[in-house]
Amino acid sequence: MCRHAAWLGAPRPLTSLIHEPEHGLMRQSYAPRRQRHGTVNADGFGMGWYDPAAPEPVRYRRAIPVWADANLPGLARVARGGCLLAAVRCATVGMPVEESATAPFAAGRWLLSHNGRVARDAVRDLAGADAAESTCDSAGLAAAVFHRLRTAAPSSTPSAAGLGAALAEVVTSAAARDPEARLNLLACDGTQLAATAWGDTLFHRPCPDGVLVASEPLCDDPGWRPVPDRSLLVVTPDGSRVQPL
Ligand code: GLN
What we know:
The structure is a single chain. The protein is an alpha+beta fold and about 240 residues long. It has one domain (about 1-245): Aminohydrolase, N-terminal nucleophile (Ntn) domain (Glutamine Phosphoribosylpyrophosphate, subunit 1, domain 1). The protein has helices at about 15-20, 25-30, 70-80, 120-125, 135-150, 160-175, and strands spanning about 5-15, 45-50, 60, 80-90, 105, 110-115, 180-190, 195, 205, 210-215, 225, 230-235, 240-245. The strands form two sheets. The protein has a seven-stranded antiparallel β-sheet with strand order 3-2-4-1-10-9-11. Strands 5-6-7-8-12-13 form a six-stranded antiparallel β-sheet, covered by helices on one side. A hairpin with a 4-residue loop joins strand 7 (about 180-190) and strand 8 (about 195). Helix 5 packs across helix 6. The two termini are about 20 Å apart. The protein binds glutamine. Glutamine binds next to strand 6 and helix 5.
């Protein structure tokens, strides 16, 4: 399982997900505490953020360990926004190790990350004619979610229900075709976050100025709350909601 994390709230830098917390994604890349599958997340990393100047996110991905990028600490200190997503990757056996297979995947204003694995055949026809960024299973899941979102919201009106509904539909469809699949997805559009717990851990932590979401807690603060397995978490500026899938 890879590890991912996101923030929705007052603008802050990506270091707040990666470097600053005691168990941020930098530490989780070599010493995750809750990871059940895989040990080290050294097959790549990525981050995305929303600059007020553009509706589409800025994305930075590398197919190297997060600790091996000497430029990252400086970049992550100035890359900031009110909606952030970052991930470190432990590639599933048989999946390509390349930048295009590394989260976050992107389309339009959406970003998506996946912890887990799924048979590629189980998701191939969920994306319609839309091409995935890579042959990696996670890229196929992302293409399926983006396809749902484009189909559901052609006017490109942001909708919390739409983002959560797209994740829920893709996860339940993929799980029906591959009952062994692990499908923890995390997605955002600049104004909201949505995440699924399906086979791996997921936590959220309400803060005075926003909400953190992560595969596992970024620190030992007691405010981290587990999301039950087979649930959908949706975070908007109005608060967080968890519902069963
Ligand atoms: N299956 C995905 C990949 O190969 C995600 C792996 C993971 O969660 N460890 O990248």
